[in-house]
Amino acid sequence: MEISTLQVILVFLVSCVCGAGSILDEFQTHRPLIACTLIGLVLGDMTTGIIVGGSLELLALGWMNIGAALAPDAALASVISTILVIVGGQDISTGIAVAIPLAAAGQVLTYVVRAITVGFQHAADKSVEDGNLARLDWIHFGALMLQAMRIAIPALIVALTAGTDVVQTMLNAIPPVVTTGLKIAGGFIAVVGYAMVINMMRAGHLMPFFYAGFVIAAFTDFNLVALGVLGTIMAVIYIQIHPKYNKSQQVVVAAASNNDLDNRLD
């Protein structure tokens, strides 16, 4: 697939937003579901972008930065994988398999950029001492732009070369054993990651639903929409029948029963 100059510019801008979002964490633009959908939108295939984003979102569900610990780079993996699938003509499973090493590479790149921005922090301290607030703002924006370029430059390179014979030859040169192993690992990571999130939420009582969903997905031909609707119905039923979420009704019943006793005593 050949992309136009406007699409290349839009991919660059969206990648900047995703890269900045991975540091700001305010609008969650670095999450796979948002990043892949936006890249798919600018490349003219939003459906594929949503499918890739939904699959990668399961992988990255438990990825989050805690303190000084950095999670694998979901933004770089999402943007590059979507470009390879749509522009490079790769299948979705290959794009997801490639996303795993891309996330690890992006994590290393994040460490490098953060080390560089230490100099910006010292410059910001100097600006505060001098009372130069305008320079302080520019330093902050400059450090943020470095994080944006961390995603935008690799995305720009891949967008310009993904459809070429060189990249296709490089992707085809990967041994099938490696790509198959990465695909299997991707499936395991999604399941393990979701189970870790449930465990961290101390929601072990929801594990039967997790296993039930796994069995239904494995032994039926339901698509993601059907599974989503089925999960929503099960969640509504669970909330309606669980005593934890019906305290108000219990109080009303208890209050009503007390009134009956009072009436009888009267």
UniProtKB/TrEMBL annotation:
Domain of life: Bacteria
Protein's membrane topology: Multi-pass membrane protein
InterPro entries, per database record: GatZ_KbaZ_carbometab, PTS_IIC_man
Ranges annotated as spanning the membrane: 6-24, 33-56, 62-87, 94-118, 138-161, 173-197, 209-239
Main localization (coarse): membrane
Keywords: Cell membrane, Membrane, Phosphotransferase system, Sugar transport, Transmembrane, Transmembrane helix, Transport
GO BP terms, alphabetized: phosphoenolpyruvate-dependent sugar phosphotransferase system
Location in the cell: Cell membrane
A Pfam family it matches: EII-Sor
Gene Ontology cellular-component annotations: plasma membrane
PANTHER family assigned to the protein according to its UniProt record, in alphabetical order: N-ACETYLGALACTOSAMINE PERMEASE II COMPONENT-RELATED, PTS SYSTEM MANNOSE-SPECIFIC EIIC COMPONENT
Record protein name field: ManY protein
